[in-house]
Amino acid sequence: VLFLCGFQIAIPNNVKLKCISWNKDQGFIACGGEDGLLKVLKLETQTDDAKLRGLAAPSNLSMNQTLEGHSGSVQVVTWNEQYQKLTTSDQNGLIIVWMLYKGSWYEEMINNRNKSVVRSMSWNADGQKICIVYEDGAVIVGSVDGKEGPSCHMFFFFVSASTVLPLDVDTFFLISPSGLFWVIALLLVEKSVTFDCATMYPSLCTMFSWFCSSHSASVHGGSPSSHGIPPVLYSFQHNLIPSPHLRTLKVPGKQMSALSWEGGGLKIGLAVDSFIYFANIRPDYKWGYCSNTVVYAYTRPDRPEYCVVFWDTKNNEKYVKYVKSLISITTCGDFCILATKADENHPQFVLVLCNSIGTPLDPKYIDIVPLFVAMTKTHVIAASKEAFYTWQYRVAKKLTALEINQVARSRKEGRERIYHVDDTPSGAVDGVLDYSKAAQATGDPICAITASDKTLIVGRESGAIQRYSLPNVGLIQKYGLQCRAYQLSLNCNSSRLAIIDISGVLTFFDLDARVTDSSGQQSIGELLKLERKDVWDMKWARDNPDLFAMMEKTRMYVFRNLDPEEPIQTSGYICNFEDLEIKSVLLDEILKNPEHPNKDYIINFEIRSLRDSRALIEKVGIDDASQFIEDNPHPRLWRLLAEAALQKLDLQTAEQAFVRCKDYQGIKFVKRLGNLQSESMKQCEVAAYFGRFEEAERMYLDMDRRDLAIGLRLKLGDWFRVLQLLKTGSGDADDSLLEQAHNAIGDYFADRQKWLNAVQYYVQGRNQERLAECYYMLEDYEGLENLANSLPENNKLLPEIAQMFVRVGMCEQAVAAFLKCNQPKAAVDTCVHLNQWNKAVELAKNHSMKEIGSLLARYASHLLEKNKTLDAIELYRKANYFFDAAKLMFKIADEEAKKRTKPLRVKKLYVLSALLIEQYHEQMKNAQRGKVKGKSSEATSALAGLLEEEVLSSANRFTDNAWRGAEAYHFFILAQRQLYEGYVDTALKTALHLRDYEDIIPAVEIYSLLALCGCASRAFGTCSKAFIKLESLESLSTEQKQQYEDLALEIFTKHTPKDNRKSELDSILEGGEGKLPTCVATGSPIMEYQFWMCNVCKHCVLAQEISNYNFCPLCHSSVG
């Protein structure tokens, strides 16, 4: 914060002022003085010039009314902003309330306690209550309607003045002249909070005023005998603990009697003798400027964090970040540093490197308080009062491929250093990151720092200046000044240092000058003679070490070689000074509405040499202007001269000027102009060079050079105009250029995701690739399919279209596209990816792909994972993988047999399994025949036979005994059917066959059926053997065995366990005639020489029985 003396208003007849109060909302100023003087003034700023907004705007008195009603000296005035009332009191204790009516102030209410004099009054925030403090110690609270509220006595008030200020609706703040402060709550008057300001700042406290943000206040004080006492501004936090002294303002005059803040907090009114002085306040905002972006911070009432806005002034876009405990904002180039506190309960601090849109790139945690921060293109320097920390930051675009690994290894060692301000580093040996050094106290603390690419400057409170080299930090020189620096700044070549001290005095120091003192000793460094007061901002030119701009009060001065130009009225903060132009920003105006910054608040100023050069060129001529620029050379001026010479087609002067400003493109352009013969053609080219494209096009068309007009628009990328020119021409348009224009316009719409519009132009431009993309984005798959069908075979776009179909799950269309471009493998992979396995197998077979085996295995495993075993069997069967299908079918049959529920279904499953094995055998035979026909070698045939035998032996059950399962359940069902039909002897014969199938049907079921059949046919010997087998089964429980024993006992107590007749089957077996074939229709052995044999399952049926069947009883194949 900096105080700047502004203007003054004199009171007529030299009447001394006693009090002053500034209405925060409407801007009225009330002042009271001796002899009943009471005036209401109002300042208004009336200007239409954007550059003169804010403090720089001229102020006029729009109201100057004298109010009559007091006879004694008016000592207290206070405003009620909510109800537009003015309350005043004089030395006789008379209180008058004034109201505004039709633009004038009138008396509304009078009150006189007749006991004591009023020392201070204040309304609360909502204007409902007023607190009045009397000299005798009485404190009265009243309401806006005139009623008296609570009161109390505070006997420690002295006779001299006291002050009362509102804190909130129900709380007031009281100050005694001894420096004691109280906080009084209206609801609990007897309780108060007190702290002593006089102990820290021992003086007579005569007045006190809050700053508009309620975070700081101004206190006027001094010894009772002093005159011309300066007001001192202190900063108070929410807990009312005073912080360090910020600024001092010395005011002319004998005695100051009152002060009051303006509502915006940028002005303060001072009542001194018979004058009202107005001082401007220049706040030290948290802000910066980088890469066309203004970065500023402000607080919002609804959030505890700082709201940091990155406002891109070029595109008028803003990016908002919320940062806790923000300390400062520092910028350089394209980046900025946000200095913050890591955590309220943690002593660390953070330096956050951000780009111009607020994206954090690299945070650094440090253990010192970053009170002062400076930044260059390669380094960040943060300083506390005792030490400074350097960080050589790097961003991704600055790193080469070789450096990336090196940086990763030396990140800690090579980039961060810390130095104590009392140390004298040589720069030969790198410092270390030892924060214990930083904690050591110093007798001469740091007060300011600045840095350039090769120099670091550290200012100390004693006036000492220490100069260090960068990047290797070594102490080069120490200088001595007679002031305490507040802001330091180096010029672009680090030869001169600008110093703004705490009083706002700007001085300059030449760091490299060698001077000889009075004793004849030579020293380095010289304080230059230039000195300016009331300076609050300055900026060196980035391209000229002798140019700088500074803000003095509400004026901007530009200096060249320490000689000033005429001032410019403005109150903007300087952002950048380059190319003889100054960019400034009206932060005061922006922060009135920080959420909606206006581009009108960015102001560009041209310095005098640029303005003069332009005026000379326009009014005098190029020759005289050339001589002036020769005397005041700058690349911007030479470029201005070159452009003016081009306008007049003075090519020689233009070329010389472009050479002086090192503009190679300009030189080439002048050379090209020199090769043109036509003057009108030259004028067209110059118009295009200066961006007057409409004029250049019109001139080309007037010359009947439509081709050049089209070429101009081609260079500009204005394809809409190119298309228009091509269509409006009299001759035939170039087909290739038309296609190019249509495609470019299509690209324009596609880039903006207007796919439907893009399609129209891509169709005309025959751009099939982008057309496919648009159809895909529009989800127009029919159009995409038609496009694929229209393409020739093996077109390079077909695979891309196929992939688009794959991504949306359209298998058929994708396969068609892949096959059209001769990529069957991709088509099969697509079917697999989309779980279209049938299609995949079909494609693999049609294209004789070697991978069909692995593909089938993958598909089968996929089906088995989903418990679709029958689908897997069908897959293998269709693919002629009969053996694999049979294995799965046998597995299903075995699982179904374990359920013991439906034996007919189990038989069918075993029959299907056996049929698959038969097909497998047939397949193997055909394969062997093919090998013989192919005249394969004997060794190859032998090897094939060995491999086949190995496979067959590993799956013996499936190959040699494929029909055993079917036979077992066939006889099991047949025996039961015969038994229930009454053919008990035949049923017994059939049941006896089941003894060979205990590995398929559980023995308990076989022998239970056999016992049942034996008992029914009265073959009790066979029945007895069956019961003996049942009682010996280990799979039965003891209870089940006991049941069988009981049943056997019941049967065989009545019947002898002997067969009445021997079984024919047993007789045959005992006769040793060998195994006979069994009739699958009756279950009886076939002893005849003529019988029927099935062609499929190779099982036999008696000749007389087969006539009763159309299908084989076992495998159900046709009897033919």
TrEMBL record:
<dbReference type="Pfam" id="PF25170">
    <property type="entry name" value="TPR_WDR35"/>
</dbReference>
<dbReference type="GO" id="GO:0005813">
    <property type="term" value="C:centrosome"/>
</dbReference>
<dbReference type="GO" id="GO:0060271">
    <property type="term" value="P:cilium assembly"/>
</dbReference>
<dbReference type="InterPro" id="IPR056157">
    <property type="entry name" value="TPR_IFT80_172_dom"/>
</dbReference>
<feature type="domain" description="IFT121-like TPR repeats">
    <location>
        <begin position="960"/>
        <end position="1059"/>
    </location>
</feature>
<keyword id="KW-0853">WD repeat</keyword>
<dbReference type="InterPro" id="IPR056170">
    <property type="entry name" value="Znf_IFT121-like"/>
</dbReference>
<dbReference type="InterPro" id="IPR057979">
    <property type="entry name" value="TPR_IFT121"/>
</dbReference>
<dbReference type="Pfam" id="PF23387">
    <property type="entry name" value="TPR_IFT80_172"/>
</dbReference>
<dbReference type="InterPro" id="IPR036322">
    <property type="entry name" value="WD40_repeat_dom_sf"/>
</dbReference>
<feature type="domain" description="IFT121 second beta-propeller">
    <location>
        <begin position="287"/>
        <end position="606"/>
    </location>
</feature>
<feature type="repeat" description="WD">
    <location>
        <begin position="67"/>
        <end position="98"/>
    </location>
</feature>
<protein>
    <recommendedName>
        <fullName>WD repeat-containing protein 35</fullName>
    </recommendedName>
</protein>
<dbReference type="InterPro" id="IPR017233">
    <property type="entry name" value="WDR35"/>
</dbReference>
<dbReference type="Pfam" id="PF24797">
    <property type="entry name" value="Beta-prop_WDR35_TULP_N"/>
</dbReference>
<dbReference type="Pfam" id="PF23145">
    <property type="entry name" value="Zf_2nd_IFT121"/>
</dbReference>
<comment type="function">
    <text>As a component of the IFT complex A (IFT-A), a complex required for retrograde ciliary transport and entry into cilia of G protein-coupled receptors (GPCRs), it is involved in ciliogenesis and ciliary protein trafficking.</text>
</comment>
<dbReference type="InterPro" id="IPR039857">
    <property type="entry name" value="Ift122/121"/>
</dbReference>
<dbReference type="InterPro" id="IPR015943">
    <property type="entry name" value="WD40/YVTN_repeat-like_dom_sf"/>
</dbReference>
<dbReference type="GO" id="GO:0030991">
    <property type="term" value="C:intraciliary transport particle A"/>
</dbReference>
<dbReference type="InterPro" id="IPR056158">
    <property type="entry name" value="Beta-prop_IFT121_2nd"/>
</dbReference>
<keyword id="KW-0206">Cytoskeleton</keyword>
<dbReference type="InterPro" id="IPR057361">
    <property type="entry name" value="TPR_WDR35"/>
</dbReference>
<dbReference type="GO" id="GO:0036064">
    <property type="term" value="C:ciliary basal body"/>
</dbReference>
<dbReference type="InterPro" id="IPR056159">
    <property type="entry name" value="Beta-prop_IFT121_TULP_N"/>
</dbReference>
<dbReference type="Pfam" id="PF25768">
    <property type="entry name" value="TPR_IFT121"/>
</dbReference>
<keyword id="KW-0966">Cell projection</keyword>
<keyword id="KW-0969">Cilium</keyword>
<keyword id="KW-0963">Cytoplasm</keyword>
<dbReference type="InterPro" id="IPR001680">
    <property type="entry name" value="WD40_rpt"/>
</dbReference>
<keyword id="KW-0677">Repeat</keyword>
<feature type="domain" description="IFT80/172/WDR35 TPR">
    <location>
        <begin position="637"/>
        <end position="727"/>
    </location>
</feature>
<feature type="domain" description="IFT121/TULP4 N-terminal">
    <location>
        <begin position="8"/>
        <end position="147"/>
    </location>
</feature>
<feature type="domain" description="IFT121-like zinc finger">
    <location>
        <begin position="1077"/>
        <end position="1119"/>
    </location>
</feature>
<dbReference type="Pfam" id="PF23390">
    <property type="entry name" value="Beta-prop_WDR35_2nd"/>
</dbReference>
<dbReference type="GO" id="GO:0035721">
    <property type="term" value="P:intraciliary retrograde transport"/>
</dbReference>
<keyword id="KW-0970">Cilium biogenesis/degradation</keyword>
